[in-house]
Amino acid sequence: MTALIFFIFAGIAVFCGINLVAQTHPIASALSLIGVMGSLAILYLQLGGEFIAAAQMIVYAGAIVVLFVFVIMLLNAGVEEQTKGSQVALLVGVPGMLTGSVLMAWVVLRHSGTEKVAIGALPGHPVDVAQLLFHDFLLPFEITSVLILIAIMGAVVLASKPENPAGRDV
Questions:
Q1: How far apart are the first and last CA of the chain?
Q2: Above 60 in pLDDT, residue 168?
Q3: Which residues of 142-159 are buried (b: 16+ CB within 10 A; e: fewer)?
């Protein structure tokens, strides 16, 4: 039964991830991102990580996606223009992506050096996670939040139309 649940939600995550990239409207992409984050939370629950599943839903599927939707609405982004794409991307990118994917899968499957671990054998208690996040890795955590804030402010500045205070055409 657990394998069936895994394959169902892994399939939903993959489908929503492909839909996220394939959509032309940014709001539809944000909704697909919620599907990916929700599926990942279910997979975390299945692995015994209740805390990380709750954090996934609250922080990512909740706050981050709401922030993305807010920025999309603030920028008044419409439907993306479709182009034929670059021939160089098709000729170099697709074979390069396939080669890199096969190479990465081979390395992970053959040379990872990992062994099976029973569910719940590794520490993952919320107190341990909080200690790591807010004590040991506090600086990277705060730097990440500041970088996200700077990126949002940069998107707003780039998208804003310059006002012409004198009313003259430039």
A1: 67
A2: no
A3: eeeeeeeeeebeeeeeee
Which residue type sits at 45?
A: L
Give the amino acid at 9. F
Q: What is the pTM of this model?
A: 0.58
**Residue 57 DSSP label:** I
What is the distance between the alpha carbons of residues 22 and 35, in angstroms, rounded to a whole number?
14
Calculated CA dihedral for residues 64, 53, 116, 122, nearest 10 degrees: 100
If you search the block for the tokens 């492909």, which residue do you land on?
A: 18
pLDDT tens digits, 118-137: 766 766 677 887 888 888 88
Confirm if 10 and 41 have CB atoms less than 8 A apart.
no
